[in-house]
Amino acid sequence: MAVRGDIRNVAIVAHVDHGKTTLVNAMLKQSHVFSEREEVPDRVLDSNALEREKGITILAKNTAVKYTGPLAAELNEPEGITINVVDTPGHADFGGEVERGISMVDGVVLLVDASEGPLPQTRFVLRKALEAKLPVILAINKTDRPDARISEVVSESTDLLLGLAQDVSEEGIDLDLDSLLDLPVIYCAAKAGYASTKQPADGEVPDNEDLEPLFDAILKNIPAPEYEEGAPVQAHVTNIDASDYLGRLGLVRIYNGKLEKGKTYGLSRVGGSIENFKLTEILRTVGLDRTPVDEAGPGDIVAIAGVSDIMIGETIVDPNDPKPLPLIHVDDPAISMTFATNDSPIAGTEGKDHKLTARMLKDRLDHELIGNVSIHVVDTDRPDAWEVQGRGELALAVLAEEMRREGYELTVGRPQVVTKDIDGKLNEPMENTTIDVPEEYMGTITQLMADRKGRMDSMSNHGSGWVRLQFTVPSRGLIGFRTALLSATRGTGIASSLSAGYAPWAGEITTRQNGSMVSDRSGKASPYAMQKLQARGNFFVKPQSPVYEGQIVGIANKPGDLDINVTLEKHMTNMRSATADVLETLTPPIDMSLEESLDFANEDECVEVTPESIRVRKIILDRDQWYKWNARQRRQNKNS
After folding, report:
1. By the 8 A CB rule, do 188 and 139 touch?
2. Any binding-site annotation on 19?
3. What's the mean pLDDT in 32-49?
4. Average pLDDT of 536-562?
5. Pairwise pLDDT comparison (255 vs 56), residue with the higher score
6. Element at 410 (helix H, strand E)
7. φ and ψ of 519, to 5 deg
8. Annotation-wise, does 144 bind a ligand?
9. Which residues bind GTP (predicted)?
10. The Cα angle at residue 20 between residues 14 and 21, in degrees rounded to 5
11. pLDDT at 577
């Protein structure tokens, strides 16, 4: 096999908020990608508006830095070595992006927080890297945190690596365990742009004021791309993008042969057929920009144009000697939501050019399937509703939020689990959940998880006033859990989870004790009515906002639904009255985000999503029809 020494392909993988994107930012700055006068924002790769708002990476992205330091000459590449860097999401709900990113590279840098240590997503991304037989570089980040415990985190990460390697080996994957024992460790403070091979004291920055040790570790431990000389072209499509001028772009990793602009190649489709196409453009990534080139060879990660409907997982091949690569494997979805058209009485009344029809909604969901390999869209018994399955509720909530911002109006059902029938028994997905909370909330969280059928696996106290609790819990029990966790711990609790396979159905789980305050008629919310009713619960709507029959206008203080007339006006009399006093005594309404609304909704409720508003409502709006349906459900449950 021949080797291309002027390229390294590496993915930065970690748990959410451990500093991946910040580290990539520092690598770009120290590779002189930006000019001295250019103002560079933090987390420059998080270009998506939702990513910036939420502070997390949602989409896998790639960039390229040119290393021209002293090690380049030592490796016989005096003109420099191109390091293609893939920044992957750290949240388990976006695991499909991680799997795509890992399929493009020859090694990974595993980033672990010097205080938090390995968390569930660390296990997930590390296992995927080991299954792909990729070499691993361990980078301990945020060594300057006041609560850093560097030695313990290195030990925990090494134990995790060896434990996962043992599991993967038992599954029949041949790993070089000796090389894993010689794991290179780099200590970083990504925000400062420092890295060193020497372990600093807890809470201090590394003793080296640049990232040269990290570049050194990547060049020495991540193998250069190998290819077979004279082999026909093989290029795997791992991502999709778009250009205003070129149309759809396919992001490809070339394994063998070379791509040349203007030539005809074959595209091996997902179904197995091969279609010829003319390659109209090749774009190589340089920093954050894409530059047109005439050809690209083995090991290159480039964007190509020429196929209007290119799909992830397909392979560009030689039409005379096609040798397609295997499709990208993505874990099965565990959570589903029903996406349907908006049938509320005020649909389409809040703005112009809203996208309302079932055809528009279905086209948008089909478009999402092109670039998102981790979701499935399943038809339902309704022509205007579809079941969308994904890894977790956050991933599906992000899809709904993106559609809302694109002008769509829709209703989204409460998250449900995707069950399986195994040996004649109903099984449901389980999660390994890690929760970090201050010590005083340990009892509260234990009770909260017990109510959700959670089983405690371990508990550890690092002596910093915080406790780490690990549970195995049904995925159903985690729907709406984040909101309950933040309420129970006054916003201090941190939870993360990872799929733990399937287990027999755990029984009924009651996650919400309070009922809903339901409007029994249409109109406008009256300040007078809200003042009279606010002792019965907390409102979601503002005075004078439109409401309709079946809309959830608040959360009741007691269990069970409460039908109310929130539109009642004060009767006119011949006595003067200062109506301003009414407004002053109203409690401010609860303003819920889309994720919080989905967490709040009960089984018979859904969320109305429009570009201007988010409302919780009953699926059956007519109150008489809802009572009949509810009575039938009670009879069925009693008979079963």
Report:
1. yes
2. yes
3. 49
4. 91
5. 255
6. strand 410-413
7. -70, 130
8. yes
9. 17-22, 141-144
10. 145
11. 59
Q: Could you tell me the CA-to-CA distances from 480 to 122, 214, 416 in Å, in that order?
A: 23, 40, 11
User: 409: pLDDT confidence band, cut at 50, 70 and 90?
Assistant: very high
21 is in an annotated binding site: yes
Q: Could you tell me where the beta strands, DSSP code E, fall in 7-80?
A: 7-14, 61-67
Residue with tokens 């090690």: 71
In the block, which residue shows the tokens 């109209």?
280
CA 501/CA 498 separation, integer angstroms: 9
pLDDT beyond 90 at 411: yes
Output the six-digit token pair for 230. 């004279």
Decide: 63 and 85 in contact? Cβ < 8 Å: yes
What are the pLDDT digits (tens) for 100-122?
Answer: 777 788 888 988 999 888 877 77
What is the C-alpha separation between 580 and 585, in angstroms, rounded? 9
* Amino acid present at 115: S
On the question of pLDDT at 396 being above 60, the answer is: yes
Rounded to whole angstroms, the Cα distance separating 135 from 183 reads 9
The mean pLDDT of 11-22, rounded to a whole number, is 78
- 638 known ligand binder: no
Name the pLDDT band for 97 (thresholds 50, 70, 90).
Answer: low
Residues present in the chain in total: 640
The crossing angle, in degrees rounded to 10, of helices 95-102 and 120-131 is 30
The span from the CA of 563 to the CA of 569, in Å, is 17
Whether 20 has a binding-site annotation, put simply, is yes
Q: Is 143 annotated as a binding residue?
A: yes
- The Cα 249–Cα 239 span in angstroms is 9
Unique residue bearing structure tokens 């619960």? 537
Confidence of residue 553 (pLDDT cuts 50, 70, 90): very high
Determine contact, residues 211/127, Cβ cutoff 8 Å: no
Selection from 255, 262, 214 nearest residue 236 by Cα: 255
Retrieve residue 19's tokens.
């500093």
SS (H, E, C) 330-394: CCCCCEEEEEEECCCCCCCCCCCCCECCHHHHHHHHHHHHHHCCCCEEEECCCCCEEEEEECCHH
> Cα(200)–Cα(603) distance, rounded to whole angstroms?
52
Instruction: Report the range of poorest mean pLDDT among 12-21, 147-156, 193-202, 419-428.
Output: 12-21
What does the buried/exposed string (b/e) look like for 80-96 if buried means 16 or more CB atoms within 10 Å of the residue's CB?
ebbbbbbbbbbbbbbbb
Which burial class, exposed, middle or buried, applies to 539 when counting CB atoms under 10 A from its CB (0-12, 13-18, 19+)?
buried
All residues at 6 or more sequence positions from 105 whose CB lies less than 8 Å from its CB, including other chains: 9, 10, 11, 84, 86, 134
Contact 242, 249 (CB under 8 A): yes
* SS3 state at 283: strand
Taking the C-alpha atoms of residue 142 and residue 118, their distance in angstroms, rounded to an integer, is 13
Give me 6's structure tokens.
Answer: 């002027």
Q: What are phi and psi of 544, to 5 degrees?
A: 75, 5
160-174 confidence digits (pLDDT tens): 888 888 878 877 777
Residue 162 Ramachandran class (φ > 0 left, ψ -120 to 50 alpha, else beta): alpha
Rounded Cα–Cα distance for residues 351 and 440 (Å): 48
Cβ partners under 8 Å of residue 373, min gap 6: 96, 99, 100, 312, 313, 328, 330
Please check if 17 is assigned to a binding site: yes
The pTM of this model reads 0.72
Distance CA 605, CA 630 (A): 12
* Cα atoms in the Cβ-side hemisphere of radius 13 Å centred on 184: 21
Nearest to 102 by CA among 35, 204, 193, 13: 13
Please provide the average confidence, as pLDDT, over all residues in the chain.
83
